[in-house]
From TrEMBL, chains A, B:
<dbReference type="Pfam" id="PF00586">
    <property type="entry name" value="AIRS"/>
</dbReference>
<comment type="similarity">
    <text>Belongs to the HypE family.</text>
</comment>
<protein>
    <submittedName>
        <fullName>Hydrogenase expression/formation protein HypE</fullName>
    </submittedName>
</protein>
<dbReference type="InterPro" id="IPR036676">
    <property type="entry name" value="PurM-like_C_sf"/>
</dbReference>
<dbReference type="InterPro" id="IPR011854">
    <property type="entry name" value="HypE"/>
</dbReference>
<dbReference type="Pfam" id="PF02769">
    <property type="entry name" value="AIRS_C"/>
</dbReference>
<dbReference type="GO" id="GO:0051604">
    <property type="term" value="P:protein maturation"/>
</dbReference>
<dbReference type="InterPro" id="IPR010918">
    <property type="entry name" value="PurM-like_C_dom"/>
</dbReference>
<dbReference type="InterPro" id="IPR016188">
    <property type="entry name" value="PurM-like_N"/>
</dbReference>
<feature type="domain" description="PurM-like N-terminal">
    <location>
        <begin position="38"/>
        <end position="147"/>
    </location>
</feature>
<dbReference type="InterPro" id="IPR036921">
    <property type="entry name" value="PurM-like_N_sf"/>
</dbReference>
<feature type="domain" description="PurM-like C-terminal">
    <location>
        <begin position="163"/>
        <end position="308"/>
    </location>
</feature>
Amino acid sequence: MENVISMSYGNGGKKTSMIIEEMIIPALGNDKLNLLGDGALLRTSGEIAFSSDSFVIYPYFFPGGDIGKLSVCGTVNDLLMCGSIPKYLSLSFILEEGFKIEDLKKIISSIKNTAEEAGIQIVTGDTKVVDRGHGHGIYINTAGIGEKVKGINLGKKRIKIKDKVILTGSIGNHGISILCARENLLESKIKSDCAPLNKIAYTIFKYGEEVKILRDPTRGGAATTLKEFVEGENFSIEIEEEKIPVDREVIGACELLGLDPLYIANEGKIIAIVSPEVSDDIIKDLRNIGCNEASIIGEVVDYTSSKVLLKTLFGGRRILDKITYDLLPRIC
Amino acid sequence: MENVISMSYGNGGKKTSMIIEEMIIPALGNDKLNLLGDGALLRTSGEIAFSSDSFVIYPYFFPGGDIGKLSVCGTVNDLLMCGSIPKYLSLSFILEEGFKIEDLKKIISSIKNTAEEAGIQIVTGDTKVVDRGHGHGIYINTAGIGEKVKGINLGKKRIKIKDKVILTGSIGNHGISILCARENLLESKIKSDCAPLNKIAYTIFKYGEEVKILRDPTRGGAATTLKEFVEGENFSIEIEEEKIPVDREVIGACELLGLDPLYIANEGKIIAIVSPEVSDDIIKDLRNIGCNEASIIGEVVDYTSSKVLLKTLFGGRRILDKITYDLLPRIC
């Protein structure tokens, strides 16, 4: 095998087969993927969740992960946020001519490990190659299928006044780690929080109908996610700055760079809205599985203009909107 | 709205919402997509097919179609080739900074028309933006879910000696049309055959267990598809050059450019292997629905070395391998 990807690795012929047979099947193979048909035949419970994301992150290796790990986590977590158990994943590469085969191997190995951790099988895929100058090493798309959990019914329409807003851990780590890695900024110890959220989500799933909505605050950060919850609805959400966990290093980096942690992407956290009756129990359970910073950060309030309000450390109130200008492009 | 895509269209915030709410939902919206969750909840029959492809074709507008039409057809056709009825599609864009919003609108409109023709609903999606010089206008990934047709069981293991090889129409049109459009070669009338294959596949599905395997010969062309059928199996396939339908213009272009139509990509044809008992009836049915060039091009032969043999016009025999060097990169 050569050292770098050339155009003929994308022609569907011998070299495409080499990637599949020498790199993908040995690492990711299973009875469904190994059939190498135009798609995979799967048996499911019937009620399924379906989600897809493309990943264009740069650099594709970063502290705490790489584009392979991220592309599995991203779709796995979206399936969990739909109230489903992740089962099957598709994996599509867009490789740029000149991309190192060595790097592709590392990324595939990381995909293998993350898929195992998340309990998801890669069952179908695709590889395309674009000419130099029309990519950035590697882009990945994953699509996933999950089986819906009975008794979990999530949606904005189920949110009620006085429901509590839970955040499962500190925010901002993913975005800041990428920014530091990309720009060689700061001697940073900040790692991405990129992780499959199965364990955390299953802990919350146990509360059934008391769970109203789940979302992992990736692009746009926690503020954008909360704003999406209130949009078009007859309630607002008020959160308290002092309750929001942010690592000291992230606060430092944000202050230095003029960024707001509420708008920085996360890849391993959940925002959940739940009934007030179960919120303390959920926090207790989350801490028991190691989410030491899980907190109730606010609640749904009877203020009909669909706002997200931040009660600041100084006692004032600030209205949070969705992200507009983005100081951190391509963080997922 | 501005005239071109800027980085902030990919940040998951206000501008990403503009693409979704002003362009995608009005064209493609339905009760599932409009919920705009992290994924879609779907009810299926349980036994499903799952397939995904990325599309990096250039130019993204070409005679007979565009990247939008192709990205729907590609996955719809893969689902059909698995013996399933296409139901649900995900749609993920990777846009390059500077891409014309006008072109994105045209592509979305084409996606709408093709999805309607194929009877598939777009239920979830994603939009990413990469900086100038790291894309080529637009790349699209689609993933699809189909419901398996009862009584259809496809696979190489079901192929038997004397089974017939059916080709549903002329080959080479897609690849040659793209090459001519890209290089401004020839004053060509050749159009891509890009089309959803539902009607043709359903006609073949009627023959149930008599249908052994289906494949649409895209990248690598008909020769590569046939070689994939025999690989690792105890039979060979012999096809006859004179039975293979190729349009006159495609033959002309291939001769001029030194290309072999058997290795040129198609996006609207099926190669089927079927029992000899039903092969003539299938051809009759296919001609009845307008596949005037549908032909039996060869058969499975008792020659155990997994070869594809071409009986040439001059009576010789040539061994066909998979595509190796590709004179036509990025044709899908």
